[in-house]
Amino acid sequence: MTVKELSDYCLSKLGASLDYPFGPDPAVFKAGNKIFALLTEENGIAKISLKCDPVLADLLRQQYPSIKPGYHLHKAHWNSVLCSGIPDDEVLKQIDHSHDLIVKSLTKKLRKQIEKESHPLYLFPDKNYQPSEIRDGDEFYPNGIFVFNITRLLEHITANPGEYVLETIKVSDYRNSFAVINQEHLSDVDIQVPAILAEISPGRFNVIDGNHRLEKAYNDGVDQLKAYKLSPKQHSLFLTEQKAYDTFIDYWNGKL
User: Fold this and answer.
1) What does each C-alpha distance from 76 to 14, 25, 31, 57, 59 come to in angstroms?
2) Which long-range CB contacts under 8 A does 103-106 form with residues at least 24 apart?
């Protein structure tokens, strides 16, 4: 197996991260705060050091001449594997074994954190996040501390139509009878304009633009409207304050 293939496999493991604490070589893979693999190249051949049960480590060294005691590591508990003459599936099994040993050695708190962060819906904060500040004349929608810049959101949808899927929603599912509705404004509302729904927690969508359209459709006996249903990654870009963004990320992840 190539260094790239092994690196990709290591990073696919639960809670895996890549670091270079010793310089550009070796590549160090961790689960939580502990190392489970060190990957380098020796004469064009991938070489990987892995944690191993001492009894199994000794058996593997006897079976495969290219498996040696861990270089610069605890030799009873680590193997250095030169990935030539060893079946690919055997190398992957040894990576799995090393990772499992390390994860089991972590504290309960760290194991839970790794499991949560490996959830497909988990959100990692964007370090380069910039709040969508409200300009003069921008329309915005307040939902508690979460204030969305609707004008900038609509501009982004118009400029990037391929990023958003237009769906059909049932009016009765999303009409909010407690929403503040300007009845005098309803006659001017165009229900052909799509509403915008934001996924606030997994599977739960709130209307952030379109309450008047839903109310008019309800009054007119219209059962369905077009709408954009935005994922957290899509709608959080248009929160107007850093604190709101940070709070939303924590709130969302806490619901997983």
Assistant:
1) 25, 23, 21, 7, 12
2) 103/14, 103/15, 103/31, 103/32, 103/36, 105/34, 106/31, 106/32, 106/33, 106/34
pLDDT of residue 24: 87
Q: From CA 109, how far away is CA 127, in angstroms rounded? A: 24
pLDDT beneath 50, residues of the chain: none
The pLDDT value recorded for residue 85 is: 78
Q: Which two tokens stand for residue 63?
A: 């079976």
Return the structure tokens found at 43. Answer: 């004469």
| pLDDT tens figures, 61-71 | 999 999 998 87
Rg of the chain over Cα atoms, rounded to whole angstroms, equals 26
Give the pLDDT score at 234: 96
Strands 195-201 and 224-230: parallel
* CATH topology for the 140-254 domain: 3.90.1530
Show me where the domains of the chain are located: 3-117, 140-254
Common-topology check for domains 3-117 and 140-254: no
Quick check: helix, strand or coil at residue 4?
A: helix
Taking the C-alpha atoms of residue 1 and residue 6, their distance in angstroms, rounded to an integer, is 7
**Residue 137: partners with Cβ closer than 8 Å, 6 or more residues away:** 151
Residue 179's pLDDT is what? 84
Q: Which contiguous run of DSSP H or E holds residue 5? A: helix 3-11
Class of domain 3-117: alpha beta
Under a CB-based contact definition with an 8 Å cutoff, are residues 78 and 50 in contact? yes
